[in-house]
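sorry for the late reply, my laptop died twice this morning and i had to redo everyting from scratch. anyway the thing you sent over, i finally got around to it. pasting the sequence first so we're on the same page, its 120 residues, then the predicted structure underneath. double check i copied it right bc i was rushing
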Amino acid sequence: MGYNDLVKKELLGERSQITFLTADGVKFAHPLHHLGKSKDDLPLIAIDSFRHMYLFPKYEDMRTPGKVRQFLLDLYSGKLHREFHYGPDERRKRSLRIMRLVWMTPLGTSPGRRRTTTTR
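ok and here's the structure:
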């Protein structure tokens, strides 16, 4: 399934909020540069929100039903913007959990040998 087929099959309902287009990667080299990409990295899918550009992680995944739609839902929910500034949510959750553990440990105390927890 190609990009146009994907839009027709899964994303037509998003047309009121998203303009779907195909761009020439040579003519639009400047936006590619902002993504850290070049014409050698084409094809790719990206959202240009006019504030930031968000790169769809793996172009091949567009063939997996629902993946690009979820990418759009992540845009609408603010997840893409949040991760743009603060990194992936999984890493952020882990760092918050570690900060919470540090905060909950009373100053000057440490867990006993039998209570040691290893975080992966």
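Confidence is low (pLDDT under 50) at residues 99-107, 111-120.
thats about all i looked at so far, will dig more tmrw
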